[in-house]
Amino acid sequence: MTSRAGFTLDELAKALGATLEGDPRRVVTGVAPLHSAGPDQVSFLTHARYTDAAKASRAGAFVAGAQAAGLPAPVLRVREPQQALVDLLNLFHPPPTLVPGVHRTAVVAADAQVDATASVGALAVVEAGASLAARVRVGPLVYIGAGVVIGEDCVVGAHAALLAGVRLGRRVLVHPGAVLGADGFGFAFDGAQHRKIPQTGGVIIEDDVEIGANTTIDRATFGDTIVRRGTKIDNLVQIGHNVEIGEHSILVSQVGVSGSSRLGRGVVLAGQVGVADHVTIGDGALVGAQGGVPSDLPAGGKFLGTPARPMLEAKRIMAAETRLPELLRRVRALERALEALTGRPLEGEARGDE
Amino acid sequence: MTSRAGFTLDELAKALGATLEGDPRRVVTGVAPLHSAGPDQVSFLTHARYTDAAKASRAGAFVAGAQAAGLPAPVLRVREPQQALVDLLNLFHPPPTLVPGVHRTAVVAADAQVDATASVGALAVVEAGASLAARVRVGPLVYIGAGVVIGEDCVVGAHAALLAGVRLGRRVLVHPGAVLGADGFGFAFDGAQHRKIPQTGGVIIEDDVEIGANTTIDRATFGDTIVRRGTKIDNLVQIGHNVEIGEHSILVSQVGVSGSSRLGRGVVLAGQVGVADHVTIGDGALVGAQGGVPSDLPAGGKFLGTPARPMLEAKRIMAAETRLPELLRRVRALERALEALTGRPLEGEARGDE
Amino acid sequence: MTSRAGFTLDELAKALGATLEGDPRRVVTGVAPLHSAGPDQVSFLTHARYTDAAKASRAGAFVAGAQAAGLPAPVLRVREPQQALVDLLNLFHPPPTLVPGVHRTAVVAADAQVDATASVGALAVVEAGASLAARVRVGPLVYIGAGVVIGEDCVVGAHAALLAGVRLGRRVLVHPGAVLGADGFGFAFDGAQHRKIPQTGGVIIEDDVEIGANTTIDRATFGDTIVRRGTKIDNLVQIGHNVEIGEHSILVSQVGVSGSSRLGRGVVLAGQVGVADHVTIGDGALVGAQGGVPSDLPAGGKFLGTPARPMLEAKRIMAAETRLPELLRRVRALERALEALTGRPLEGEARGDE
């Protein structure tokens, strides 16, 4: 994406708070991983297991931790290489310059409040009473519903739709195609048909949340569906009505969380996990990929499988499953041996037939 | 969303067909659940298990069934509280007033037929030969393909795409980002590459169907993919080509139904269920969350797991799985005990080694 | 969709390289499956199991292989009926005529390069530096980011978004709502919050790839996420950052492939399969529906289940699971019988209690 022309290693050392071992005037023009970096690029060693790759790298400089030794180019020594990598990437790839203003083809209601420093892209639609705070970037072809509130420094990608009743905090990042505030899925069967229960609530997204492409977060029946600050949600995730997700949680792609469930702070749901409705998941709990969560999970645990069980137990079960066909044979052999020994059949009630 | 200013309890009793116990002139201005309702709001008691919450509620009035007693405010007594709740919400949250007409920025083909009472939102595109019946609402940024037919009172949300060959009945609700009529997934491998099988059919959506945000329903190879009347489909659901879904079925979020499968009337597929291709599911069958349906399921049953089994059997298996590691140890102990007893090893063929 | 008026059987025989048995002047006006074809339509017999249906069909002619006998109408005899069906459908349903040019309502950057033979639909947005080659069709309401490169004969459906850094080869088909080039899901936890790792790479889609509706393919952190030529991807699929998918692979709907995983050539992932990050799947491997792939899979094998196991083994385990509750009872019966025989309890360590 956008990238700056280059930095001297001295400039980088100052920006990263790093100790430089090597020529301060050397210039690097980009960041690249060990295997592909060339002499004009700075690379990074975030884990000792990549030491051999680092020694073989053609990179012009390295960001590395205290232990790394024997690297073939200048080293920017830091305490936390992965955090320094984030800083480094932000230096080389600053966000695109914001050009404030409403594109001439956007359709913005007369009474929508668009801050003078905000931008609204081509062919976006902003409905009556919506409010865009300072430095908000609304992409092209975006739909912002009536009365939607968007806090400072939010970015809303192309084709995203924020329907009436949605409020974003600050620095929220909504990727393309995400739909926030569609009706929750609620019906009352009257004996002949499913009658729609009007979904009258909204959606609250707190500060620093990221929402993936084509993800859907439904409005509440009453009150609000809530995603608390710092939580990161991947692509194609479904968040049902009245769900509440705690701070700094991680929901990987294709996760589904059913209505009225509550996730604590720092929860991690790996890819394709499903959570039933009205379930509570405690702070810091982790559910492995494809897990199914039919009922509450305590804080801090790691879980796997459908139904989700403590991870070690689930792995023992999975290992035992591998031996299940063998186990059937062994039990049959035991039955035969015992019958031979006693000269009579085992009690009938429990006998299987193979 | 939109809401009316307020109603007297007398007005509500008449509208709901309820018997009022309390002051008919009392005014309520909104509907809220028991825990959050204030004195200006009417709340509801849809199940006896919420009786304590109702007694502690600050609501100004309650909708409740015949049994509820001891409530701390006037009661609108009804036979079916959940149905009355739907009526109540519709009273307070009527659909937004329809302002007929085509937005000046919409791009509507000269020969498209848009009823005078229909509305087409900002920056929507309606192609040649499309037909929008009375009171249809096409949202902003929607795409309506050539020849698409949309029946009376349908609502199509922002960014939805109805491609050529799609026909909607009446009162169909399509949420934002849904894609109806994309090509089915069909290829013929010629030994070197997958050749695309042209998908020449359409999609028929009958009356009163609801289709969730970012859901995809593919066109048929020949003929039509069909969703029959009254069926409700949640977000991020995939319906493959030539699928037929019976009346009044429920497909929860992230369900996938593969090509040419047929679901009966009143089928319920819980979240993330997958149905293989060319499978038939009988009327009224229910498949629990994350179930996988590789082959036909009979009418009326409840099923769970992958492969989907009768629910009680599946739950017994899941319970037994928990004991599988223990079972391995027990069988090993039996083998040892029997060997000790007989003084010789068990017949070799079935022995496992741990 | 679009279709031609009709062909004589003689014309069809020539176009398909078929041997005609029957009246060469007979005219057919469409293609239909055996059960619905009428006398004006040509039908097809692609498998011997449909022979009875063919004999009962009212079709005006049949495309069939060498073995088919006793058909009630003229036969276009071919070596590969399924390949001939593709040819036949392409004859009757040619792609819509391309009308070159940029729609007056599209917003195209001054320095974007749009070939004179390309078309850009209504209300599409094409950003600076983007390049559309000959005969490219960009649909209505599409977003094409800065510098995106689209090769000859690509088709991009309504509402699709190709963000900066995306490059398409030739004849790529992107269905509506697909998002290519959204940020990969990468964060570095700093002890207090998840810091976003800037995603600086791109997406490369090679020739003849098809990408389903509302599918998401993320940009790489560094370098490129790559889908190699001929691969077909269904709807609602998630491809994470830095994934590489080999040639002529098939990814069915709702599949998720996590970051940095590599699929070989000719891999098949059935519906709802999930692949963990940094996993390698060998050429030609197949994973059955809903499978979960936590670690590498060798080339050529067929796999099923979570965790994915060789298909025969997985099916044996699934069959054995059905007998698990019975097995628990049988082991308990063995324990009782052995205790009765020896007159003392089994060694305690392994005993379960029921």
Question: How would you describe what is shown here?
Answer:
Three copies of one chain form a homotrimer. The first copy, chain A, has 354 residues and is of the alpha/beta class. Chain A has three domains: 86 residues, Udp-n-acetylmuramoylalanyl-d-glutamate--2,6- Diaminopimelate Ligase, Chain: A, domain 1 (3-Layer(aba) Sandwich); 212 residues, UDP N-Acetylglucosamine Acyltransferase, domain 1 (3 Solenoid); 32 residues, no CATH class. Chain A is 16% helix and 28% strand. Chain A is built from five helices and 40 strands. Chain A has a twelve-stranded mixed beta sheet with strand order 8-11-14-17-20-25-28-31-34-37-39-40, covered by helices on one side. The longest helix of chain A is centred in the C-terminal third of the chain and has 19 residues. The first copy, chain A, is flat. In chain A, 56% of the residues are buried. The interface between A and C is large, with 69 and 66 residues.
Specify the CATH homologous superfamily of the largest domain in chain A: Hexapeptide repeat proteins
What is the distance, rounded to the nearest whole angstrom, between the alpha carbons of the first and last residues of chain A? Answer: 64 Å
Question: What is the chains' assembly state?
Answer: homotrimer
Major sheet details of chain A: 12 strands, mixed
CATH class designation of the largest domain in chain A: Mainly Beta
Specify the helix fraction band of chain A. Answer: 10-25%
Most extensive interface: A-C, 69 and 66 residues
Count of extended strands of chain A:
40
* Strand content bin of chain A: 25-35%
Q: In which order are the strands of the major sheet of chain A placed? A: 8-11-14-17-20-25-28-31-34-37-39-40
CATH architecture of the largest domain in chain A, by name, is 3 Solenoid
Q: Helix segment count of chain A?
A: 5
Query: Which class best fits the helix and strand makeup of chain A?
Result: alpha/beta
CATH level-3 fold name of the largest domain in chain A: UDP N-Acetylglucosamine Acyltransferase, domain 1
- What general form of chain A does the structure show? flat
Q: Could you report the average pLDDT of chain A, rounded to the nearest whole number?
A: 95
User: Spans of chain A with pLDDT under 50 lasting ≥5 residues?
Assistant: 349-354
